[in-house]
Specification:
The chain is mainly alpha-helical. Helices cover 68% and strands 0% of the residues.
Length: 207
């Protein structure tokens, strides 16, 4: 065999050896090293997503009610902003629960993920800040400035409790999705609380 033939043979043998070695080496490489772990069913992430979805739903409901009970453009604009912001955030949280394979509801008491189990007020109020069915009925029956003040007061209480929940999630959640969303909620709701306080005072009422 000439020099050229020997070189070709050595190259062929090298390629065969490489093919035999590669599967063995790759089989020892962890396949899930870069995958994010799914939050546990009892985690802050899952608990917050479930509870805040319920909390947000009531804020959206109250905002739709007041939108139809007053012609005041400032209140209607605020209600519109809350409807859009909180409906969008609620959709994100429910979407993450789907991605994580977690149920949207739980038999566990609300807010246990905060180490802060609460006794619901009852009458439809499941968590701090949530209005009762009686308060919602009163809002539906009110008109004009009475509806505006009632809505602003209820939503201020709602936001304060929501911001407290969001602070706990912003510092205690494991996923970037929940931490970032919760931190944004705190900023947004604090800003709206200040705005609503001014709007209540402008209407000659107190918070």
């Amino acid at each position: 065999m000439g020099a050229a033939g020997a070189a070709v043979l050595l190259l062929a043998l090298g390629l065969v050896a490489l093919m035999l070695v590669r599967p063995t080496s790759s089989s020892t490489t962890p396949q899930k090293a870069n995958r994010t772990a799914v939050p546990a069913d009892t985690s802050v992430d899952v608990g917050f997503a479930r509870d805040m979805s319920i909390h947000h739903q009531q804020a959206v409901e109250m905002s739709f009610v007041v939108r139809d009970r007053t012609a005041d453009e400032d209140v209607r604009r605020l209600a519109y902003d809350i409807i859009n912001t909180q409906a969008n955030q609620r959709g994100m949280m429910l979407g993450w629960l789907d991605v994580w394979g977690r149920a949207k509801s739980s038999s566990r008491p609300p807010m246990v993920w905060m180490d802060h189990q609460v006794e619901p007020r009852g009458d439809g109020s499941l968590m701090p800040g949530m209005a009762t069915d009686t308060e919602l009925d009163a809002l539906r029956a009110a008109k004009g400035k009475d509806a505006e003040v009632m809505y602003l007061r209820l939503m201020t209480v709602h936001h304060r409790a929501g911001a407290e929940m969001a602070r706990a999630a912003a510092t205690g959640a494991d996923t970037d999705e929940i931490r970032n969303l919760a931190a944004g909620m705190v900023r947004g709701q604090q800003s709206e609380i200040a705005l609503m306080t001014d709007m209540i005072e402008e209407r000659g009422a107190t918070v």
